[in-house]
Each structure stands twice: as structure tokens, then as C-alpha cells.
Automatic annotation (TrEMBL):
InterPro entries: RNaseH-like_sf, RNaseH_sf. GO terms for molecular function: nucleic acid binding. It comes from Perkinsus olseni. Residues 334-378 are annotated as: Disordered. This is Uncharacterized protein.
Length: 999
């Protein structure tokens, strides 16, 4: 209750009106607190009632389907808390037995348990008894208690026990004295042949994997991590597994061993050590407790007599059955339906003598009268024997049993005869609802038109067969193909497979009055549609009355929504979807004009979701994490966690080329964006030296994020970083280059600054000495680290101050030179750093990331227009040079506009004319307010004293134009006079030779 009051007060302080419940429900499990414990109530009553009903149905001899059996097993196996190992093991065995023995049966088909062999039937009876024991009402209610851990709780102690037997394996884990989870599983038929050490190793590996999954989940939901660390003690009663867990030399294990399974064991040992490395990483205490003794993971040997609980889990399938075998042995002998079918005895080395076709009882033209007379007593004995194998009574007048007995007497295999009779009996007993003829035709057709033609061909074949039976083939006149009648025939075929619509067609039920549905042969349609006579001549079907936008009444046959016509219905939707060129669910429904589909929009939506072309065309690029956040997947730490760490705790390291083979190493703090640049060669040893200098200068460097370059991913670099710097490297994903966007953006900003700083040498960095380059890098870092990011924050004195990487990293601004803001102000870096980080985290960082994500949605705004250039405009042309830090822009003037995308520009220095794309141009505008020249002096009309205020124009200018005339080889000059100047730069001229004006 004290915690509840604290929660309510915290919600009131945040202005959140949220009710606090006494209990909740997670995955069907009731959760509530009882003093200092968390109670998990499984609430298994409803699910166990389903299992109990299934057990009673099977015990009474009732028939059940595969779906019902799997439903009961699913209700029994539902265990979110992972503490009912017996229920899960029993349900797994039930599903394995039914799924393998009746793999060819449908979900709704009734299952015949008597068709199983003795071992499978004994296993089924044992499983039913086991299910009955597990559904005992005395086991309800089921609740589990778990103590609540607080931040100051001692270390988390996990104890695990594992064991393997010939039948299965099992393991259990405890947190202190509370059971965490338990598991029991059965070995497959091939796994039972493994060596005992290999089986023990598999169980131990599964236990470690489950513990890794648990600690990963715990780290993700527990914000404070492991303040005191986690200690794991694992006990195994196999000495070889314990020894292998402490020996990581996989190669030596293969060399020393002479066992047949040495390579399989070696792979398991490698996986075991990978899990141990991950577990030790997850068990480490947090950074605030580095002086705490670290225990990690310990695997110890335990005597088998003491390891009782794990041994019971591994032998859970050793229950005895009615045939004297264990349940595990019976389940391993379960064979599929394809394996139980009888084979020709000759394949096994024995068989019957080759008979003639008239004496072979399995031949197609065999006649029982051709057989020699057999002994009646022998035939009766064979009938009795076959009836006992089939499990039916031997009726004396049964023709099938009598023929089967005669076949056995004359050389046929008993197994073949019994198998054929069983297949015929099961076919007649378990036949389900047949699919419609239109649905069967849809299996082999590409579109609806092929289905309609196929149905028409079937109809024609029936007419031909009927005429052949009546001896009237000469008078047969097949009607031509009628598409509308074929559509009604297909709809009638689908409706006859639906019980509701078939009752309407048979007249057993009547359609609802005043509704939109009618029978096509009904006389009530005379007042609705003008083509009622045509409808009555077609196959009778249930039709739907609809209308168009113009008010016309249309009648369309209905395709029911059932499983018997699902293929034809899906084919209609697929053809409509292709006809609308994958236009979505609404467009697909608009193209369905020949039929009425109940719930057609829902079916179209489900079809569009599964369409590969629609998925590709509508795929959108989504960011798992926003750019440049520096999030590591190992611990799922958020960017806000970095604000609680010192500067340069997590950094991004990369090389930046200044051009002309001059490389620098940049180290960027992923929390504050503070950057440090050092000259360094691009190799592993130089990188370590540069990072050591940066660590001595800035501190931190505990988590280093790098790209996947060879000098960063080699083992020597990783070991040197851990040994000399005490840091850990985290290479970024090669498929996610946006993870390094933080320091890649710094490289772009540094290039812009260095281009200005290197204007004196035109970007020729080689002309600078090493000391000059170092000073240049310090100046560039100072500019980058003092740049404003965000707008401002209020310091402790209530004064607005700009936010910069220096303030985020160290709490104060770094001033150098004759800058503004050099007033003597009291400096308290600790408080200022905390204030600015809080302001940046709660407001500015969020706004910056929102704008960054919005910018990623589109490279260009929707309403953006192309730039407009005029003749004579001053522009900057993008012309990249060979030097990386030289300016890539050149000044030019627009000479002519060629089209909406290209213009002609002339360079003032060399008077060179070239054609450029408008997206390579930036218009230069004149800032009038900053000009020291008066407007009168700036206007060219005031250059001379005259009264005419008109500007100079090309109109009236005499020019000569070089043209090529048809019929002459070379170009010639023609004189003309400019009559008009167009805004695009073109002119209209009047030729002196009297030809009409041209532009």
C-alpha cells in the first residue's frame, strides 16, 4: 500500500489521471501483489475443462477430429510462467503422436485410433491417462509466489540443474529459493543413438541459452541494470561436460578424441563457450560498482544421486504402457501413414510365385470363376483371420471378405489384402464434404475465363456420354459457348456446396422477404430487370439485386463465403486485382462486376496484404532507430543514458581525409557532439597512439564505435584497445550506415570550415608544415565545439545562454582570441553542465530529432519549385576540383536559357561558354541594405547626363548570323536587324535580303 501511495502521488505530480488496479492480466495470467511478493495466478480452470472434456470423449469411445485433439493439447500446454513442465511434455507428446500418425488427414477428418499399431495405441492410452491425471481438480487453483527485488537488494543468485537420460532431457533454474523455469523434452529416434556425453552436452547448452534469454529480457526491462551483478551456479552430473566447459580449445578436442561423434561434440563445445562469453558479459555489475567482486558463471560437477529433480525431468517419459514398453520407446516407434502401408513381400526377399493374368487375383481382368475350387474350411478360416485383422465381424454373405479369402488362398499377401480393405473402409467412413466443381476446376486454371470454358467442356462431355448411352450421337447438337450461362453455372456449383444456399435452391428454405436476394427462376424479378427471360433460361442460382450510379438495376449471382468454393472466389479476386493493376482493395472490388461476393472488401484486403507486387510497390523505408543516436543493441541503452556519463564515454572514431594523402583521426563524443582531431596514419598502431593521446587530453573512451574497416575490426586492434585504453570496441552494422551519422556530419562541417581556413593556399594542404596543420586542426575543433546547437537555455542566474558542444561536454564555454562575451562571470561547471544537459535532453534534443526524422521523409518538399534564372543573372556553378578542401564553386553569368532544366553560362575570367543544369547553379543575390553605394550611383541610368531614362536594348542592332542554307555545303553569314528582344534571351530579326522575320 505504501508503494501504491507513492505511485499515486507521482502520477498527480505529473498531471496524469490514471486509475491504479489491484491486479492485472498478462497472457492469461492474473498478477497481483501480496505484501512483499508478486503472485502469479495461472487461472487454468477454463483451459483444463476443455482438456477434461476431451479425455471423457476419448474414454467413452467417441470419435474426434485432429483439430479437436490439437486444441486439447494446446489448452494443456498453455504455460506462460514455464513452471508446468509435465503439462507441456504431455501436450508435446500428444501433438507428435497425432501429427505423425495422421499426417495425411485433414483437420476436420475424424481419426481412427484403432488403425494404429500396438505400440502407438499403447502410447495413446498412456497419454490419455496422463492427461486425466494432470486435469485433476485437486491441482486447482494454481498460483506462484515471487519476492519483489528493490534497488538495494543483494546480488542475484541463479542456480541451474540439468541432466539427460536415454529417453529425454530436462533442466530447472532457481533464483535463490524461487523456481524460475523448468523444461523437459523427449529425444528423437536418431538422438537416442547419441553418446551419453553428447546428450548431456545438448541439455547443458539449452540451459545456458535459456539463461541468456532471461538475462537479456531482464536487462531490457530493468532500468538500473545489475548494480550488484549476477552470479550463476550450474550443476551437471556429467564430468566430461564440466571439463569441456572449462576447455575452449576446439581444435585440440578434435585431435585428442577418437570418437565417432567428435566433430559434433566439438561444434556443441564451441556453441557452449559462445553462450558462456555472453552470460559473463550479462552478469557483470554496472559501472557504479566496478569494485564489487565479480563472480560470473561457474559450472560444477554434482553427483547423480543428489541431482534428483533434474533426473526426474529427464525421465518424465519413462511411464510404463500396456505393452510393457516405456512411453518414450512407444513414441519413438510411431510411424507415419506412408510407413504403415503394406509393401510387396518380394521386396523383402520373399514373395509369391508368378501367376498368369487369368490366375492373378490382383489383375484388372481377374475373374473369380477361373479359380480352381478351394477347400471351404480353408476359405472360412481365411475369412475369420481377415475379419479379426480388420476388427469387424465375419458375415457369411460378405462378398468382399469371401473374395479376399479366395485371393489369400491363391497366393495373395494377407498384408496387402487387409491394407486395401482398410483403405476402402476408411475412405467410406471418413469422407468429408466434397468441394464444388468450380473450385476443383480453379486448381488448374489461371483466370476465371479458363474455369468457365473448362466447366463448359465438362458439360459438353456429359451431353456426349448421355447421347452415347441413348444411341443418339448422330442427332447430338452441342450448344455454343455462352459466357453468361457459364458464370451462372459456376455460381450454382459454388452455392450447392454451401448448406444455406443449397437449401434455398432445393426449396427447403425460403429467402427472406423484401431482401436483396432472389432466385433467378423466380417470377418476382419481372418488375426489377428487363432481361428476366434471359435469366430464366440460364442455370438456376441465387442472385443479388444491386444498382449502378445511373439508377439501373443489376442482378449478379452470389459466390458464398465458405471453404468449398474458396479457390474460385480467390481466383475471381485475383483476376480483378490484376485488371486494376494492383490498385488496392477498393480498386479490386470495383473490378468485380460479374459476381456478388459477401464480405468481398475484407477478402480483397486480405488478398492485397499477401500480394508480393503490392508489398514491393507499397514498401516504405522505416528507421528502426533515428539517425546518429549511438544506440548499442547489446544492452539496448537509450541516448538519454549517455547524459549521466562523463564526456567522451561513448565515442565514434573514424578517419577523415584532407586530400593529398593527409589523414586525420576524428574522435566524436556521441553524447555532446564534441570533437577532437589528431593527425594519424590510417593503420591499427597509429590509431591506438592517437586514441591514447585523446584519452589523456579528454578522458573517457570506454565505448568506441567504429566502422567495419580492416584496421578497426582486426583482433590486434581490439586487444590493444582493451589492454591500453581499458575500452571496448563496437563495430557498426555494415547494412546501417546511418548509425555513424553523428561523426559523418562532423566531417562535413569540418570540410566547410577548412575550405575557408585554407583559402590562402587554394586547399593545398601539403604546402603546410606539421605544426601549421596541428594549429589548423585545433582552430577547426574550436569552431566546431563552440558552434550553437539548439537555441538557448537558462543558466543558474536566469540568463539566456546558447547551447554548444563545449557546454554539453564540460559545462562552460571555451573562449579564445578577441571574441565577444569575455566579461568576468562566475563559473561553476558542475551546476552549469547539469542544467544545460537537462534542458537539452528534455527539449532541444527532442526537437532536433523530430526535425531530422521529418527531413528524412522527403529529400525535397512537395511544394518546392525549380529555380528561375534570367539572362544576365549572377550565379555560382558547382565545378568540383581535384583538391578536396578547395572551393568547388565558380562565379559565372547566365547567357541564355535553353529549357526548364539547362542554361548557358559564361565565365568572366576566361570568357568560356558552357551549358549547365539548373540544379548545379546557385543564384547570387545582391544585399542592398549592406551596400555602401547610394541607389542613384548604383543605377546605370545616372552614368551620363541625359533625359531618356530607358535602359540599353538590343532592338535596332545590326547583326550577322552564320547559317547553313539547303543546297550549299558551307555556312554563310547573313545580315539582319534586331526587331524584338524576348525574356528568354532570344531575338527576332528582320533580314536585309527581304526574307520574312525569324526568331
Amino acid at each position: 500500500e505504501s508503494r501504491e501511495d507513492e505511485l499515486r502521488s507521482a502520477l498527480q505530480q505529473c498531471g496524469i489521471d490514471l486509475p491504479v488496479a489491484k491486479e492485472g492480466s498478462i497472457l492469461g495470467v492474473r498478477v497481483y501483489y501480496d505484501e512483499e511478493s508478486l503472485i502469479l495466478d495461472c487461472d487454468r480452470g477454463k483451459r483444463l475443462a476443455v482438456v477434461r472434456g476431451f479425455v471423457e470423449l476419448v474414454s467413452s469411445g467417441g470419435a474426434f477430429s485432429k483439430r479437436l485433439g490439437f486444441k486439447a493439447a494446446g489448452c494443456l500446454a498453455f504455460d506462460p510462467v514455464r513452471l508446468h513442465f509435465a503439462a507441456r511434455a504431455c501436450a508435446d507428446a500428444v501433438r507428435a503422436l497425432l501429427g505423425r500418425s495422421f499426417s495425411r488427414r485433414g483437420w476436420s477428418d475424424l481419426l481412427d485410433i484403432s488403425s494404429l499399431n500396438d505400440s502407438s495405441r499403447a502410447a495413446w492410452e498412456c497419454l490419455i491417462e496422463w492427461m486425466a491425471d494432470l486435469c485433476n481438480p485437486a491441482a486447482l487453483p494454481c498460483s506462484h509466489k515471487s519476492p519483489v527485488r528493490y534497488a538495494d537488494a543483494p546480488e542475484l543468485l541463479i542456480r541451474g540443474f540439468c541432466d539427460a537420460s536415454l529417453s529425454g532431457g530436462g533442466f530447472v533454474a532457481y533464483v535463490n529459493d524461487v523456481k524460475l523455469f523448468s523444461e523437459a523434452f523427449l529425444w528423437r529416434r536418431t538422438e537416442r543413438r547419441w553418446h551419453s556425453n553428447r546428450r548431456e552436452l545438448v541439455v547443458l547448452l539449452r540451459l545456458l541459452q535459456n539463461l541468456c534469454d532471461f538475462l537479456h529480457y531482464r536487462r531490457r526491462i530493468v532500468p538500473q541494470g545489475n548494480p550488484q551483478g549476477v552470479r550463476i551456479l550450474i550443476y551437471c552430473d556429467n564430468a566430461a561436460c564440466v571439463a569441456w566447459s572449462q576447455d575452449s580449445e576446439r581444435g585440440s578436442l578434435i585431435e585428442r578424441s577418437k570418437g565417432v561423434e567428435r566433430r559434433a561434440v566439438s561444434r556443441l563445445v564451441s556453441g557452449l563457450h559462445d553462450e558462456l562469453v555472453e552470460l559473463r558479459h550479462l552478469c557483470k555489475p554496472s559501472a557504479a560498482k566496478t569494485d564489487h567482486p565479480y563472480h560470473g558463471v561457474e559450472i560444477s560437477h554434482l553427483a547423480g544421486t543428489v541431482n534428483g529433480e533434474a533426473d526426474d525431468l529427464s525421465r518424465i517419459y519413462d511411464r510404463k504402457t500396456s505393452v510393457g514398453k516405456s512411453l518414450a520407446e512407444c513414441l519413438s516407434e510411431v510411424a507415419g501413414e506412408s510407413e504403415e502401408s503394406a509393401r510387396d513381400p518380394s521386396r523383402q526377399g520373399s514373395g509369391w510365385d508368378k501367376l498368369n493374368s487369368d490366375k492373378d487375383p490382383l489383375a484388372a481382368d481377374w475373374d473369380p470363376s477361373s479359380l480352381e475350387k478351394s477347400d471351404e474350411q480353408e476359405v472360412q478360416d481365411k475369412c475369420q483371420f481377415i475379419s479379426e485383422r480388420l476388427g469387424v465381424s465375419a458375415h457369411p454373405d460378405s462378398q468382399s471378405l469371401h473374395l479376399s479369402a479366395l485371393s489369400v488362398c491363391h497366393g495373395a499377401s494377407v498384408a496387402d489384402v487387409v491394407c486395401l480393405l482398410q483403405d476402402a473402409t476408411s475412405h467410406h467412413e471418413h469422407v468429408g464434404p466434397s468441394e464444388s466443381l468450380a473450385d476443383r476446376a480453379s486448381r488448374y486454371c489461371y483466370d476465371v475465363d479458363d474455369v468457365l470454358h473448362l466447366l463448359w467442356y465438362v458439360k459438353a462431355i456429359i451431353y456426349i456420354l448421355k447421347a452415347n448411352a441413348d444411341k443418339s450421337l448422330d442427332a447430338l447438337d452441342l450448344p455454343p459457348f455462352d459466357a453468361v450461362a457459364a458464370r451462372y453455372a459456376a455460381a450454382r456449383s459454388c452455392q450447392l456446396s454451401d448448406p444455406q444456399y443449397s437449401s434455398y435452391l432445393d426449396g427447403a428454405d425460403k429467402l427472406p422477404p423484401c431482401g436483396p436476394s432472389f432466385i433467378s427462376s423466380s417470377a418476382d424479378l419481372a418488375s426489377l430487370a428487363p432481361d428476366v427471360r434471359d435469366l430464366q433460361d440460364r442455370p438456376t442460382a441465387v442472385i443479388y439485386r444491386s444498382g449502378t450510379a445511373s439508377g439501373q438495376v443489376v442482378l449478379r449471382p452470389i459466390l458464398p463465403r465458405n471453404s468449398a468454393c474458396s479457390r474460385f472466389r480467390s481466383l475471381v479476386i485475383r483476376v480483378a486485382h490484376r485488371s486494376c493493376v494492383h490498385g488496392g482493395a477498393d480498386g479490386t472490388c470495383a473490378q468485380i462486376v460479374d459476381y456478388h461476393l459477401p464480405a468481398g472488401l475484407a477478402s480483397s484486403r486480405s488478398f492485397v496484404k499477401q500480394c508480393i507486387i503490392c508489398q514491393i510497390s507499397r514498401a516504405k523505408r522505416a528507421w528502426v532507430n533515428p539517425m546518429s543516436l549511438g544506440v548499442r543493441r547489446e544492452d539496448n541503452s537509450a541516448p538519454a543514458d549517455l547524459f549521466r556519463c562523463p564526456p567522451y564515454w561513448r565515442v565514434g572514431v573514424d578517419y577523415f581525409c584532407l586530400g593529398m594523402r593527409c589523414k586525420i583521426l576524428t574522435c566524436t563524443c556521441l553524447m555532446s557532439g564534441h570533437v577532437t582531431m589528431v593527425r594519424s596514419d590510417e593503420d591499427s598502431k597509429s590509431s591506438i597512439k592517437a586514441l591514447r593521446r585523446i584519452q589523456l587530453l579528454r578522458g573517457g573512451l570506454r565505448e568506441i564505435c567504429t566502422d567495419t574497416a580492416s584496421y578497426f575490426t582486426c583482433s590486434g586492434f581490439t586487444r590493444s584497445v582493451h589492454k591500453e585504453l581499458g575500452a571496448t570496441t563496437f563495430p557498426l552494422n555494415a547494412r546501417s550506415p546511418h548509425e555513424g551519422g553523428k561523426y559523418e556530419k562532423i566531417h562535413h562541417l569540418a570540410s566547410r570550415k577548412l575550405r575557408v581556413l585554407l583559402r590562402d593556399c587554394m586547399g593545398n594542404i601539403v604546402s603546410k608544415s606539421d605544426d601549421e596543420i596541428d594549429e589548423l586542426l585545433l582552430r577547426c575543433c574550436h569552431l566546431l565545439n563552440s558552434r550553437p546547437i539548439g537555441s538557448f537555455y537558462f543558466n543558474r542566474d536566469g540568463v539566456k545562454s546558447s547551447i554548444s558542444p563545449n557546454v554539453l561536454a564540460f559545462g562552460y564555454e571555451h573562449y579564445a582570441g578577441g571574441q565577444f562575451g569575455m566579461d568576468p562571470v562566475p563559473c561553476s561547471p558542475g551546476k552549469d553542465q547539469r542544467a544545460v544537459r537537462d534542458a537539452f535532453e528534455h527539449y532541444h534534443w527532442r526537437r532536433m530529432k523530430e526535425k531530422s526524422i521529418e527531413a528524412c521523409r522527403s529529400k525535397c518538399p512537395k511544394n518546392a519549385q525549380s529555380q528561375q534564372f534570367g539572362v544576365g543573372d549572377t550565379v555560382l556553378v558547382y565545378v568540383p576540383s581535384n583538391r578536396k578542401l578547395a572551393f568547388p564553386w565558380r562565379l559565372a553569368h547566365v547567357a541564355a536559357v535553353r529549357s526548364n532544366r539547362s542554361v548557358d553560362v559564361v565565365y568572366p575570367m576566361d570568357q568560356r561558354l558552357s551549358t549547365e543544369n539548373i540544379y548545379n547553379l546557385v543564384k547570387v543575390s545582391h544585399e542592398v541594405s549592406a551596400d555602401c553605394v547610394s541607389p542613384e550611383e548604383r543605377d546605370c541610368r545616372w552614368d551620363c547626363e541625359r533625359e531618356d531614362l530607358a535602359l540599353p536594348s538590343r532592338a535596332g542592332m545590326c547583326i550577322e548570323v552564320l547559317l547553313k542554307v539547303r543546297g550549299r555545303r558551307e555556312k554563310e553569314w547573313y545580315s539582319a536587324k534586331v526587331s524584338r528582344v524576348w525574356s528568354s534571351g532570344h531575338v527576332t530579326v528582320e533580314w536585309f535580303d527581304g526574307d520574312p522575320p525569324e526568331r
